[in-house]
Amino acid sequence: MTPTQIESYVDAAAAALALPLSPAHRPGVLRYFALAAEFAALVESVPLAMSAEPAVHFLPVEPEEKEA
Predict the structure, then answer these.
(1) Could you tell me if 29 and 1 are in contact, meaning their C-beta atoms sit under 8 angstroms apart?
(2) 1 contacts 37 by C-beta, under 8 angstroms
(3) Do 37 and 9 meet the contact criterion of CB atoms below 8 Å apart?
(4) What is the mean pLDDT of the segment spanning 20-43?
(5) Are the C-beta atoms of residues 62 and 39 closer than 8 Å to each other?
(6) For the chain, what is the mean pLDDT?
(7) What is the mean pLDDT of residues 34-62?
(8) How far is CA 49 from each of CA 43, 52, 53, 55, 56, rounded to the nearest angstrom?
(9) Short-list 39, 29, 40, CA closest to 6
(10) 64 secondary structure, DSSP code
(11) If pLDDT is split at 50, 70 and 90, which confidence band does 64 have?
């Protein structure tokens, strides 16, 4: 997303949710959405096979402890 698109999205989302956005908070919100757009672009760049399906559930695995 371009900076202009991000600003338009933030303004539209805030208006749709009747969420007041303080001018002091606006730069941080725009930075966050720019970062989120970068993450989304990275995820979308990974090719998936037509047979790929979402996981039914997520089960985190504890990391193994390294021996000292």
Answers:
(1) no
(2) yes
(3) no
(4) 95
(5) no
(6) 92
(7) 90
(8) 14, 5, 9, 14, 17
(9) 29
(10) P
(11) confident
The answer to whether the CB of 33 falls within 8 A of the CB of 9 is yes
Q: Give the number of residues written for the chain.
A: 68
- Give the predicted TM-score (pTM) of the model: 0.65
Amino acid identity, position 59: L
Tokens encoding 64: 């193994």
Longest dimension (CA), the chain: 54
- Determine contact, residues 33/10, Cβ cutoff 8 Å: yes
Query: Whose structure tokens read 């949710």?
Result: 17
The answer on pLDDT for 11 being more than 80 is yes
Grouping H, G, I as helix, E, B as strand and the rest as coil, residue 29 is helix
pLDDT of residue 44: 93
Q: How many CA atoms are closer than 13 Å to the CA of 27, on its beta-carbon side?
A: 1
pLDDT for 56 equals 87
